[in-house]
Each structure stands twice: as C-alpha cells, then as structure tokens.
Amino acid sequence: MTTRIRILTTGGTIACTQNPATGALEPTLSVEDLIGAAGLLSPAKGYEISGLDLLRLDSSSITLADLDLLVAAVRSEIKDGADGVVLTHGTDSLEDTALALDLVHDSEVPVVVTGAMLPFDATGYDGIINLRGAVQAAADPANRGRGALISFASRLLSARGALKAHTSDPAAFHTRSPLTGPRPAPVRHRSLGRLNVPIIAAWPGAPGDAVDAAVKARVDGIVVEALGAGNVSVGMGEAVARALTRKIPVVIATRVPYGPVSLAYGGAGGGSTLGDLGALSAGVLGPGQARITLATALAARVDPATLFV
Ligand code: ASP
C-alpha cells in the first residue's frame, strides 16, 4: 500500500529568497522547488509525495477568505485520497491558520503545518528539516485523529494553544500551556470570509474609544487583548460592557504569552466583572487563535463558549 502525502504551499519564509536588487525577502519557491530541496522527489518505497501551490503570500496578509480557501484545499486533498496533508506557511500567523484548520477538521487524516525562520538562500535554512519533519508527521499513523498539528524545529505541537514565541529563534513555536484541555468536537466549516472580528489591544489606562468604534462599525465580534489574567482599564471595561449590551460577542484574551485567562478580578475592567456581563475567556488561546475561534463559531452558528474549552 502506498502512503500518499500532499504538500500545499502558501508562501512565507520557507519559500523566500532574497531579492538581489533590494535585499528584501520574497516568496519565490514553488512546491516542486521545496520537494526537490528536501530530497523528497524520490521518497522511500511505499511513499508518494506531491504538492500544489495555493498562495504566495507573507502570512501577515492571510485573510479569513484565504482560510476558507485553505480549508477547502485540505478537504479536497483528503477526498482525493491523501493519507496526510502538509501545509507550508509563513510563521507570523502560522498558529492562526493551524487552528482554523483544526476547528473544522473532521477527518482522521493528519494535517501538519510547518514553515521556516530563515529564507532558502540563507546559511542554516531550516525549511528542509522542517518540511521533512512535517512530512514524516503527516505520514505517521500515530498522528491520525489528532487534528491539525504544527511540526517545527523537530517538535510536534497541537495547533490549539500554540504560539510563535520568538522572532528569530529557529525553535520559535511553543505552546501557551501544557494544559490545553480536550480538543473540542470539530464544527462544520462555513465561510469565514465575510466576518469582521478585530483584536483590540488594551494598555494601562486605555480609553474605550477603540471598542466603541468597533461597535459603531458593526463588527461581528471582538477579541480584547487584555493585560495579565484578563483585565482592562475602567474606561475600556465600560466600553466592553456597552458592546455586550449590544449583543456583540466579546472574548477576553491576554497579551501575556503563557498561561490561561482566568477572569478573576473585580472593578469595571476586571475580568470577573466582564465575565459576569457575558464576555468569554479565551482560556489558553492567544489573541490570534481566539479571533479564529470566535469567527469559526459565529460562521458555524454554534455557541462560541463550546469552542473555548
Ligand atoms: N513574514 C514571514 C511570514 O509570516 C515570516 C516567516 O515565514 O517566518 O510570511
């Protein structure tokens, strides 16, 4: 029996070379280039490795509509008989995309997301080892039924709770908490493309005007990047309360890289008060992953609380 692995590319540093004229990094490598560079053109007997170029973007530009396209592409590969799917992606929003895939992944087939911290033409390019690791993880029957995974610098992480924790370290991906809890049952994929779910960052003493402006702009939901275990200033807390009164779902995440949001404190901006008013805790999900989760729940018309476990 042949194990079929499909590699889908989206751009990012793993596909970048330096433009000799400007010095800027640009995604120039195709999936064939990557497969060839990783020595996967003639894989071991019993394996078939091939790929498809989907996007060529810096991952800071991946929109919710792009995520719809990526979810559809993964599903189509699985329908066509892939035993494992690898997605190469920029690292800046890699954990957002990995979670978007995970939340709707209702197949046993492993989906493994990877990237690189250094471009192809740099000494120490990490794309080859990362791609090989991702292919190995995607082909491993032990990873069946584990949802979407991140393979990076010889580590395999669940999508849920993962974060890019360093701007330059090759082992850039960590997990926010070892206590990620159970993976919620996948929800039906419904298009995210039309949703507007901003992340609004708090700072000490922040006024509420950014939250009020989002409400006025009729956003579909708001993720607050709060301080500490989930607290914002009095002014911002009062604006969050106004948003909740207008039935806009609000999720409280934190700018702290590790540990869960606990919504423990009182006062107008305290997490406990906001929770009592109906705001949800992002739990161990960072602001980016909380945004993806809220958007996925809103699109699928499921209670967002069921995905913030
Ligand atoms: N700016 C790049 C991106 O996210 C960074 C990387 O891939 O490491 O597309």
List its salient traits:
8 helices, four-stranded parallel beta sheet, 14 strands, Rossmann fold, single chain, six-stranded mixed beta sheet, 2 domains, alpha/beta, 309 residues, 28% helix, binds aspartic acid
Give me the secondary-structure topology.
Elements (H helix, E strand, L loop, with lengths): L2 E9 L4 E3 L6 E3 L3 H7 L9 E11 L6 H16 L4 E5 L5 H10 L7 E4 L12 H13 L8 E5 L2 E4 L3 E3 L8 E3 L23 E3 L7 H8 L5 E5 L7 H12 L4 E5 L16 H6 L3 E2 L5 H14 L9
Parallel strand pairs: 1-4, 1-5, 5-6, 6-7, 11-12, 12-13, 13-14
Antiparallel strand pairs: 2-3, 7-8, 9-10
Helix pairs in contact: 3-8, 5-6
The structure holds aspartic acid.
The site of aspartic acid has 10 residues, from loops.
Describe the structure.
This protein is an alpha/beta fold and 309 residues long. The protein folds into two domains: 3-175, Rossmann fold, CATH 3.40.50; 199-306, Rossmann fold (3-Layer(aba) Sandwich), CATH 3.40.50. The protein has eight helices and 14 strands. α5 (209-216) links the parallel β11 and β12. α3 (94-103) runs parallel beside α8 (287-300) and α5 (209-216) runs parallel beside α6 (234-245). The longest helix has 16 residues, at 64-79. The structure holds aspartic acid. Aspartic acid binds at residues 12-13, 58-60, 90-92, 115, 117.
